[in-house]
Every structure is written in C-alpha cells, then in structure tokens.
Specification:
Order of helices and strands: HHHH
Number of helices: 4
Strand content: under 5%
Helix content: 55-70%
Structural class: mainly alpha
Shape: globular
Length: 63
Amino acid sequence: MPKTIKWLEKVRLNQKLSYLEASRNIGISKQAYWSVETGRRNPSVKTAKAIAGYFGFDWTKFF
C-alpha cells in the first residue's frame, strides 16, 4: 500500500476538515482527494493547483 502524503493529511486535519469537506471546498470528488492524500495517485496539474490554492501552499510541492 502506498504511503499517505502525511504533510497533506496534516494540513487538512489542522483545519479540522474531513476528506469530504476538503474535497467539496476544493471542488473535486471525495475519491480524487482521497487518492491524492493516500498516495494512490498523483494529482494532475489542475488538481494540484486546486488543492494547493485552497490550502495555501505552492502546487509544485506535489511534484
């Protein structure tokens, strides 16, 4: 099983958000968000920018 992206999980939990809340706020599916956070898939540039823009970090951190 791939490693969870711990830093992204911490960012989400620091804001007291569930996967569902984060994904809704970002505008992506719960499954897409969960897949990125758990390391099951790499985000597209568009998804990386959406997640990073919402949480306030540089989108290139994913790559």
